[in-house]
Design goal:
Layout lengths: L2 H26 L3 H8 L5 H24 L9 H12 L3 H9 L1 H5 L5 H18 L17 H11 L6 H20 L16 H44 L4 H17 L1 H19 L5 E3 H19 L4 E7 L7 E3 L4 H12 L6 E10 L2 E8 L12 H4 L1 H14 L4 E7 L3 E9 L10
Parallel strand pairs: 2-4
Antiparallel strand pairs: 1-3, 4-5, 5-7, 6-7
Length: about 450
C-alpha cells in the first residue's frame, strides 16, 4: 500500500469515527430519560447510573465491531466515551464506565485497554470536579482550539483560566499517551488507529477532539432546547394564570355596594352575599389548576350569579340551567364560563329595561363537550360582530385560553340577533379520566 492510499484510508477512517460519535450522541438525545439526565447538572447516583446504562451499550458494540476486523476500526470510541462519561458523571462514573466498555478488548488480551479507558474516565471526572462552574464544560466544541490565543492572553493579562481548554488539553494528552503506550509495548496490548509519530498523527488528535466535542455540542443543543421548553411552559403557566384570574374589578365594587345596601334591611341576605364573595375570592387566590371538573366550574358560576341576582333582584334576572349529568365530571379550563356570563350581564342584559334571562346548557356528543350560554339581551349589531373576538375582553380572554390549551381542536361561535339576545357555543374535547395541567 503506497503512502497516498494509506493517508486516504486514515482520513476516511477518522471521518467515520467522528460520524459514529455524533450519530450515537444524536441517538441517545432522542430518549427522554437521557435528556432529563443531561438537563440536570447536579446528578444523583440514580441519574449517574442511568448515564452509564445509556452510554455503555453502544460503546461496547463499537469495541466489539473493531475487534471483528480492520474495516471497523472507526467504531472504537472507548477512550473518548470514557472521557465523556467522566466529564458528565464524575470521577466514579468515568473509570467504571471505561472499564465496562473495554471488557471485549480485555477478553481479546488487550491488557492495557481497560486501564487506559479507566484513566481517561478518571481524567474527565477530575476535570469536572476542578471546574468551578459546571456549565463551562458545555463551552467545549469542535472549534475550541481556535480560542487558544485568546485563552493565553487571558491567562497572561488577567491570570484567568479558560476552563473549556481543559477538555481540549486532556483529549490531546489522551491520544498522545495512547500512541506512546502502543509504541512502548506490544501493539496488541492496546489499540490505536494511527500509532506512528509523524505529521498525520495531528489528524488523529483532531479526530479525538471532534469525537468528544461533537457529542457535547449535540447534547448542549438538547439542553438548550429543553431549557427553552421549560421557560415556555413557565411563561404559558403565568399567562394562563393571568388570563384565568382576570375578573372585572367593578364586580367587586358593585358587590360591596350591594352588601352595604342589604345590611340595612336584609342582613341575612347580605351575609349570604359575603359568603359567596368569599368563595369566589378563595377560588381566585388558591393554587391555580388549569383544568377543573365542570361541576366545580358551575358551582363557581352559581355563586357569581347569586350575587348578581342579589344586585338586580330576582324579578329582573332569571337563571335557567339544563345540565347533562354525564358532563359534570368532564374537565374544562378553569374560569371558562365566568367571563362569558359577565359579558352577558354587562353588555346583553344591563341595557335591557325589562327582566333578563340567562340559559346555560351542556351536553356530550361523540366525545365532544358542548356548552351553550344564551341570554335574551339587546344582542350584538352586525357592525360590532366582527370586532367582538378582538375588542371584547371576556370573549377574547376565553378564545385565547382555548387556543393555548387546545390549539385548533376547539370551536367558539357567536350567534346574535339585535334586540333578541346572544347565543355563545363552545365545543371542546371531553376530558374525563385524566386531567391535564400546564407547567
Amino acid at each position: 500500500m503506497d503512502k497516498a492510499t494509506a493517508v486516504r484510508d486514515l482520513l476516511f477512517t477518522l471521518l467515520l469515527k467522528v460520524g459514529v460519535a455524533a450519530s450515537i450522541a444524536a441517538l441517545l438525545a432522542r430518549w427522554n430519560t437521557f435528556r432529563r439526565v443531561l438537563f440536570t447538572e447536579e446528578r444523583d447516583p440514580d441519574q449517574k447510573l442511568k448515564l452509564m446504562l445509556f452510554m455503555t451499550p453502544p460503546l461496547i458494540l463499537g469495541v466489539t465491531l473493531r475487534l471483528v476486523g480492520s474495516p471497523y476500526h472507526f467504531a472504537d470510541l472507548s477512550l473518548e466515551g470514557a472521557f465523556l462519561m467522566g466529564l458528565l458523571g464524575g470521577r466514579v462514573v468515568g473509570p467504571i464506565g471505561g472499564a465496562i466498555i473495554t471488557i471485549p478488548a480485555l477478553i481479546s488480551h488487550e491488557w492495557l485497554a481497560m486501564p487506559a479507558a479507566s484513566t481517561a474516565g478518571l481524567l474527565g471526572g477530575l476535570i469536572r470536579q476542578a471546574i468551578p462552574n459546571k456549565e463551562d464544560l458545555w463551552n467545549f466544541g469542535p472549534f475550541t482550539f481556535l480560542n487558544i490565543p485568546r485563552a493565553v492572553v487571558r491567562l497572561l493579562k488577567k491570570a484567568q483560566l479558560s476552563w473549556e481548554m481543559a477538555p481540549l488539553a486532556a483529549c490531546v494528552l489522551l491520544e498522545l499517551g495512547r500512541v506512546a503506550l502502543v509504541q512502548a509495548t506490544k501493539p496488541k496490548w492496546l489499540f490505536a488507529i494511527h500509532a506512528q509519530w509523524d505529521w498525520w498523527l495531528a489528524l488523529t488528535v483532531i479526530a479525538t477532539l471532534m469525537s468528544v466535542a461533537a457529542p457535547l455540542k449535540i447534547w448542549n443543543n438538547t439542553r438548550i432546547e429543553m431549557n427553552l421548553e421549560r421557560h415556555q411552559q413557565l411563561l404559558l403557566k403565568a399567562r394562563m394564570d393571568a388570563l384565568s384570574r382576570q375578573i372585572n374589578p367593578h364586580f367587586l365594587f358593585n358587590t360591596l355596594n350591594t352588601v352595604s345596601a342589604l345590611i340595612r334591611f336584609d342582613p341575612d341576605n347580605a351575609r349570604g352575599v359575603v359568603l359567596k364573595l368569599s368563595n369566589i375570592l378563595r377560588r381566585l387566590l388558591r393554587k391555580h389548576e388549569t383544568f377543573v371538573p365542570l361541576r366545580e366550574e358551575i358551582e363557581f358560576i352559581d355563586d357569581y350569579l347569586d350575587i348578581e341576582v342579589a344586585r338586580f333582584g330576582r324579578d329582573n334576572l332569571d337563571i335557567v340551567k339544563d345540565i347533562d349529568e354525564e358532563t359534570l365530571e368532564a374537565f374544562v379550563p378553569s374560569m371558562l364560563l365566568q367571563p362569558i356570563v359577565e359579558n352577558c350581564l354587562k353588555h346583553g342584559l344591563a341595557p335591557k329595561l325589562d327582566g333578563g334571562k340567562i340559559q346555560l346548557r351542556t351536553v356530550n356528543r361523540d366525545g365532544r363537550l358542548h356548552i351553550e350560554i344564551e341570554d335574551n339581551g339587546v344582542g350584538i349589531s352586525e357592525e360590532k360582530m366582527p370586532h367582538v373576538y378582538v375588542e371584547g375582553i371576556g370573549l377574547s380572554n376565553v378564545r385565547e385560553r382555548l387556543r393555548v390549551l387546545y390549539g385548533t381542536d376547539f370551536q367558539l361561535q357567536i350567534e346574535s340577533r339585535t334586540g333578541q339576545g346572544t347565543l355563545i357555543k363552545i365545543e371542546i374535547p371531553e376530558l374525563v379520566s385524566t386531567m391535564q395541567t400546564v407547567g
